[in-house]
Amino acid sequence: MDTLQIVIGYMAAGLTTFSFLPQVIKVWRTRSTRDVSLSMFLVLCCGVSLWLAYGLMLGDWPMILANAMTLALASTVVYFKIRHG
After folding, report:
1. How far apart, in whole angstroms, are the C-alpha atoms of residue 27 and residue 77?
2. pLDDT score at 4
3. How confident is the model over 2-57, as pLDDT tens digits?
4. CA–CA distance, 28 with 80 (Å, rounded to integer)
5. Rounded distance, CA 84 to CA 33, Å?
6. Of 27, 51, 56, 59, which has fewest CB within 10 angstroms of its CB?
7. Largest distance between two CA atoms of the chain
């Protein structure tokens, strides 16, 4: 893999992963999940778990790190939705 592929992989992983951060922060601060779809986040967590497993099988670190972090962030929203839903 050349340097450009690595840079693009990490940039894509970082941007898509951290796109969930504003939602997590808002849910954390307000404790309101009224407008959050539980089914969407559950399906997302399942999909991200599969991407994480796939990344682990390939040994693809950008994929592993991004999906592990995304799973943690999305699971946080699911936790708050179930707890405060």
Report:
1. 7
2. 93
3. 899 888 988 888 898 889 899 999 999 998 998 899 999 999 999 999 999 999 99
4. 8
5. 7
6. 59
7. 46
State whether the Cα torsion 23-25-28-32 is positive or negative: negative
Residue 82 CB neighbours (<10 A) = 12
Give the tokens for residue 25. 């922060």
CA distances from 53 to 34, 37, 57 (A): 31, 24, 6
Give Cα 82 distance to the centre of its chain.
18
Residues in Cβ contact with 14 at an 8 Å cutoff, skipping those fewer than 6 apart: 66
pLDDT tens per residue, range 30-44 = 989 988 999 999 999
Count CA within 13 A, CB hemisphere, residue 27: 24
Q: Does the structure show a pLDDT above 90 at 84?
A: no
